């Protein structure tokens, strides 16, 4: 870390007190760490941003024995190896502590990340990109926003087209119905205005049988 005068030095940023952890795992890219309570501490995990000095997330991977960052610093894997007979497998996390997925594996031995392929860009170009990252992000955000606006415009245009087609079909049906009514009136005259059917309720009572029997008091 550079001091105010530009010299390299060590600066005390703060102290994390009362943390139940027995391991500190630095991201290869710096900036973030994972505080882990492995084995006897039952897999307590705390994702911490050193630059802002704040906790990003707290989680647990029960019985976890190992924590490994990927070479890009974007993902973290916590695992339970076969030194335990149960809960073997690994969990994959994002750098800020979001659980991405869980992968159970019986007799799980070890998780190893593939080494990161060396960059094809010279160091000077990487530094230039890193310094202009905010400008690149702003530009790409503007491009993404323009694409979203265009997509919304396309959706609205398609909906307007469908509405026009529906209105035209509804108008055509109304015109057809009016022409049909005019044809009936011209053909049948006043009868065209009469109801096509009527409903009448008829109640019929029918005597089925009559018997006379003596009554003995």
Describe the structure.
The protein has 217 residues and is α+β, with helices and mostly antiparallel strands. 30% of the residues lie in helices and 21% in strands. The chain has helices spanning 123-131, 133-188, and strands at 23-26, 32-37, 44-49, 54-60, 66-69, 75-80, 89-94, 99-104. Strands 1-2-3-4 form a four-stranded antiparallel β-sheet, with no helix packed on it. The longest helix has 56 residues, at 133-188. It is elongated. The model has no long low-confidence stretch (mean pLDDT 87).
Secondary-structure topology with pairs:
Elements: E1 23-26, E2 32-37, E3 44-49, E4 54-60, E5 66-69, E6 75-80, E7 89-94, E8 99-104, H1 123-131, H2 133-188
Query: Helical element count?
Result: 2
Provide the structure class: alpha+beta
Number of strands: 8
Instruction: Please identify the oligomeric state.
Output: single chain
Gross morphology: elongated
What is the H/E string? EEEEEEEEHH
Give the termini distance in whole angstroms: 123 Å
**Largest sheet report:** 4 strands, antiparallel
Strand content: 15-25%
Main sheet: strand order: 1-2-3-4
State the low-pLDDT regions, or none. none
The level of helicity is 25-40%
Radius of gyration: 40 Å
Mean pLDDT equals 87
Write a compact overview of the structure shown.
The protein has helices spanning 123-131, 133-188; strands at 23-26, 32-37, 44-49, 54-60, 66-69, 75-80, 89-94, 99-104. It is an alpha+beta fold.
Descriptive tags:
4-stranded antiparallel beta sheet, 30% helix, 21% strand, 8 strands, 2 helices
């Amino acid at each position: 870390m550079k001091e105010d005068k530009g010299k390299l030095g060590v600066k005390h940023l703060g102290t994390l007190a009362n943390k139940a952890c027995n391991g500190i795992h630095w991201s290869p890219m710096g900036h973030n760490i994972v505080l882990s309570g492995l084995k006897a501490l039952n897999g307590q995990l705390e994702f911490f941003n050193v630059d802002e000095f704040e906790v990003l997330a707290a989680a647990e991977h029960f019985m976890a024995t190992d924590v490994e960052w990927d070479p890009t610093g974007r993902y973290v894997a916590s695992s339970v190896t076969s030194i335990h007979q149960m809960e073997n497998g690994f969990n994959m996390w994002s750098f800020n502590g979001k659980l991405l997925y869980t992968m159970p594996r019986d007799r799980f031995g070890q998780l190893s990340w593939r080494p990161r392929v060396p960059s094809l860009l010279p160091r000077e170009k990487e530094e230039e990109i890193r310094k202009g990252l905010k400008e690149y992000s702003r530009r790409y955000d503007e491009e993404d926003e323009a694409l979203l606006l265009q997509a919304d415009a396309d959706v609205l245009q398609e909906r307007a087209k469908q509405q026009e087609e529906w209105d035209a079909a509804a108008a055509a049906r109304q015109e057809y119905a009016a022409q049909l009514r005019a044809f009936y009136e011209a053909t049948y005259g006043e009868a065209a205005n009469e109801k096509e059917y009527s409903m009448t309720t008829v109640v019929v009572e029918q005597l089925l049988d009559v018997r006379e029997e003596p009554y003995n008091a």
